[in-house]
């Protein structure tokens, strides 16, 4: 490891085959928190009355937040997703790949769906960042 942990060289590619024939390279991320994946609870534990620990694996979805600058060219893609889902009353299936050259790692996200999203920017002194939430079936890490 080189000790470099920048996220500035990260490449996040989104696929929505129902809408676009080519992968979408997302860009112009929010400054303070570009993407965030929640910790996944993957087990349940129960203590029996005689003090024995019982445990079991329970599959859970993985929730990820994506945050973009108000001026991001990626926003029209998410606006199209929101509009399509609301008008069509359907959820599009998403896929993604996050490549982090500084770590030499790649993450593949499968069978996702857009769950929440900012429908318009909030105004303040300047327009604020916009957030979107995708829920994934699974995420697979790998080396580059």
UniProtKB/TrEMBL annotation:
<dbReference type="Pfam" id="PF22764">
    <property type="entry name" value="E217_Gp32"/>
</dbReference>
<protein>
    <recommendedName>
        <fullName>Phage tail protein</fullName>
    </recommendedName>
</protein>
<dbReference type="InterPro" id="IPR054440">
    <property type="entry name" value="Gp32-like"/>
</dbReference>
């Amino acid at each position: 490891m080189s000790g470099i942990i920048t996220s500035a060289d990260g490449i996040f590619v989104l696929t929505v085959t129902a809408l676009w024939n080519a992968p979408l390279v997302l860009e112009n991320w929010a400054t303070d928190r570009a993407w965030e994946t929640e910790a996944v609870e993957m087990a349940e534990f129960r203590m029996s009355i005689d003090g024995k620990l019982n445990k079991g694996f329970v599959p859970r979805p993985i929730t990820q937040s994506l945050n973009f600058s108000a001026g991001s060219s990626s926003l029209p893609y998410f606006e199209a997703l929101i509009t399509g889902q609301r008008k069509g009353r359907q959820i599009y299936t998403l896929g993604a790949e996050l490549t982090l050259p500084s770590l030499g790692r790649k993450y593949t996200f499968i069978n996702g769906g857009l769950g929440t999203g900012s429908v318009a920017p909030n105004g303040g002194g300047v327009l604020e960042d916009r957030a979107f939430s995708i829920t994934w079936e699974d995420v697979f890490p790998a080396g580059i």
